[in-house]
């Protein structure tokens, strides 16, 4: 781990705990900073705050004092989920105080280089797939970021022989200054998280920050089928590695209906690849290009692509019961992600959808609603999904929690059907996270199948 003398005996505020804030606070304390932590959860319900207090960190819990920033802080590290409209963040920026997410801290202390992966959809699958490719080729990868492992905790232990394969959200990237991945990947860009960013421009600019510090020595892998990314690539210094699904090209990586190609030569037959769906082909091309640039072998890439079946909560196969196959795609938190899931299956889908109301359009799904023979909807958007389904001539029913939704989906189904949880909404109206929602779906499926063996 690199030392940061510029933070030694400097006053740093960590705003918001959870995993990222807790890990950053411990690291900053170790680096010799004078750390204050401010978290909304009451101290008596906050084991992370209690542990930090025992280390000698100043802890303020249960409230956000208006005068907190009058203490002379030189840096704020905020939880990525705290929006920039937060009054303390606004005040810090007005005072000229730098506001980072822990990704910036991770980069500054890391002895290992980074591969950064972002995009509106496909980040986790691409990150996981690339990690497996590099790991099976003995490239000493570590995995971090929005995938669930705090990057600065990983970076603290990394050595120069490692490479940190990092999934990055727009929330995390917005709080970076010097972060520079040796390989940056943007899988795709679509409208998302406008409730956080306030505008599409702010969301897109936050995503593009993954490339802002790259030089001629670095690589940018991007979806050339999207004009917004092709245009962005023209402004960069990095070496450009476009990928396309529109047919074979002689340069870089591409795919047609039969093969994936690397520099115009067949790499693998598509029918041998385990991961289904056109949307996953984007992820496969991006991960494969990064692995090859990092020195991975074609043999290992073939081996991974013929065995990798997906990531939990992302079109994850759960079980088969009486001819019905159950898939958990709880990570689909917008209509575009659900459209991609519907596109991956030929038809006979019983769809479970709904959740937090963010007023996103559902029209992305319409071209594939003819594959849906029944819809079970839930959460705040239940009525809006019902109205949308009716306009698509799809029968619909409304459920409560996931046990009820699964039972109603089974009742609508027949042997040969796909029962797919792909909500097209965030989970926070009913569940703490999309992972909790997906786990509830898995548990409900197992409960039914075990009771009806």
UniProtKB/TrEMBL annotation:
Entry annotated with the keyword Acyltransferase: no
EC number(s) given by UniProt: 6.3.2.9
Keywords, alphabetical: ATP-binding, Cell cycle, Cell division, Cell shape, Cell wall biogenesis/degradation, Cytoplasm, Ligase, Nucleotide-binding, Peptidoglycan synthesis
InterPro entries xref list: Mur-like_cat_sf (IPR036565), Mur_ligase_C (IPR004101), Mur_ligase_C_dom_sf (IPR036615), Mur_ligase_cen (IPR013221), MurD (IPR005762)
The keyword Transmembrane helix is annotated on this UniProt entry: no
Binding of ATP, residues: 119-125
Catalysed transformations (reactions): UDP-N-acetyl-alpha-D-muramoyl-L-alanine + D-glutamate + ATP = UDP-N-acetyl-alpha-D-muramoyl-L-alanyl-D-glutamate + ADP + phosphate + H(+)
GO molecular function: UDP-N-acetylmuramoylalanine-D-glutamate ligase activity
Pfam family, any one: MurD-like_N
Pathway note: Cell wall biogenesis; peptidoglycan biosynthesis
Leader peptide range in chain numbering: none
Compartments where found: Cytoplasm
Domain of life of the source: Bacteria
The protein's enzyme class: ligase
Positions of the Mur ligase central domain: 117-291
Residue ranges constituting the Mur ligase C-terminal domain according to the UniProt record: 313-425
NCBIfam families cross-referenced by the UniProt entry: murD
Family: Belongs to the MurCDEF family.
Task performed by this protein: Cell wall formation. Catalyzes the addition of glutamate to the nucleotide precursor UDP-N-acetylmuramoyl-L-alanine (UMA).
Protein name as annotated: UDP-N-acetylmuramoylalanine--D-glutamate ligase
Organism: Planococcus dechangensis
Gene name of the encoded protein: murD
